[in-house]
Amino acid sequence: MTIRAIRLFGDPVLTTRAQEITEFDAALETLVNDMLETMDDAGGVGLAANQIGVLRRIFVYDCSHTEDGLRGHIINPVWEPVGEDTQTGTEGCLSIPGISAETERFETVRVSGQDMHGNPISMVASGLMSRCIQHETDHLDGRLFIKQLSPQRRKEAMKAIRESDWFQL
Fold this sequence. Notes:
Layout: H1 26-42, E1 46-48, E2 58-62, E3 71-81, E4 86-92, E5 100-106, E6 108-114, E7 120-126, H2 127-140, H3 151-163
Antiparallel strand pairs: 1-2, 2-3, 3-6, 4-5, 6-7
GO molecular function: peptide deformylase activity
Pfam families: Pep_deformylase
Family: Belongs to the polypeptide deformylase family.
């Protein structure tokens, strides 16, 4: 397994839609394991493939420290809200270090996709796992969480990004 470099805000790969995965082979299994190791090393609860420069529709997650207790991956994820209830909570991103903001998401979602062997998977998730599914699928669609913010919060986040040590024009 290899820890891969996480791409940072401003990298065009983060605003590019990832492509569906059609081949389920040893290379995909290696990618899943590398992504889990990279996420663990960075201290995240989720990581989408384009965050490491790979434009394929897969994300990994680790909510094992919460009541959800889930850790794994979803390939070619598709989600839909279950009901209209929303949650608001602090959200951050490994590709935008040190920046977090109160972000509104659906409370409960239903997600379907595949595992690394091509087997269908689905789940209904609430709380942190629901937030993770929405956040990581947004990444795969080329959308960063700051786009989810109100105009005022987005303006504040952009100011903080511009003033951060890691940001380069």
